[in-house]
TrEMBL record:
Location of the region described as Disordered in the Swiss-Prot/TrEMBL record: 156-184, 207-231
Keywords, ordered alphabetically: DNA-binding, Nucleus
Gene3D superfamilies for this protein: High mobility group box domain (1.10.30.10)
InterPro entries cross-referenced by the UniProt entry: HMG_box_dom, HMG_box_dom_sf, Kinetoplast-DNA-binding
Annotated source species: Angomonas deanei
Name this polypeptide is given: HMG box domain-containing protein
Keyword GTP-binding: no
Length: 231
């Protein structure tokens, strides 16, 4: 008997801590700057330092929080089904009376108050809406495949082939490197050029300008017949 009671107490305490942690993470901005390990240490210390009155309130609310968490996890496993209350909460997010409350605990309390005060007819309507929502969410969407008639397929192939042929015509082959360039024809050396070459080899002791003058002078002294022979 003692073991069972101790086990239940530990379970309630665990879920009370989870509830406390969830609310603190959502409402306490100073925790955002901490790492996951630091955050856990700080929250554990804060939880242990809670007054008995606040701790008792958490213990009282823990079973409902556990049921909601487990039901949410089970819903996810079986296809993300939601309860009428969850459907109600979804539709109350735009309610100014709910949106104005920054504290998650206050929001939860207000939502429960509104839901519990609803007439039976409204709750039944929520139940039907939740069922419809789950049915639509869990119905697999079939892919719509449009069959193309045989004639249209042939026409599409012809159009594709035509486009391909036009594209090929537009492609212009790049000219090869050097194509179109005329080869330079080496001109035959003139008699004067040959004379200059041979004479320059003989004159070694004069500067270049003087050499040219001397070669020119010697060329002029040659007779026409000698000039022709040098070609």
């Amino acid at each position: 008997m003692f073991r069972t009671s101790r086990f239940c107490l530990d379970g309630v305490r665990k879920w009370a801590f989870k509830l406390f942690k969830s609310e603190q993470i959502e409402s306490n901005a100073s925790l955002d700057q901490l790492s996951t390990i630091q955050k856990k240490k700080v929250l554990t210390r804060m939880f242990k330092q809670l007054p008995k009155e606040d701790l008792q309130k958490l213990y009282t609310r823990a079973p409902a929080f556990q049921a909601a968490s487990e039901s949410s996890g089970a819903a996810t496993k079986r296809g993300k089904e939601i309860t009428p209350y969850e459907y109600f909460v979804r539709n109350q997010q735009s309610n100014p009376a709910i949106a104005a409350l920054s504290n998650p605990r206050d929001r939860e309390t207000k939502l429960l108050e509104i839901y519990n005060s609803l007439p039976d007819a409204a709750k039944e309507a929520l139940e039907e809406n939740a069922k419809e929502f789950n049915r639509a969410a869990n119905t697999p969407q079939k892919r719509v495949v449009v069959k193309i008639p045989a004639k249209r397929k042939i026409q599409k192939k012809k159009k594709a082939a035509k486009k391909k042929a036009v594209a090929k015509k537009k492609v212009v082959a790049k000219p090869k490197k050097g194509a179109g360039k005329k080869k330079k024809v080496k001109k035959a050396a003139t008699g004067y050029a040959l004379f200059v070459k041979s004479e320059m080899a003989l004159i070694q002791d004069m500067p270049q300008p003087e050499k040219m003058k001397e070669v020119g002078r010697r060329w002029k002294l040659l007779s026409e017949e000698e000039k022709k022979k040098s070609r």
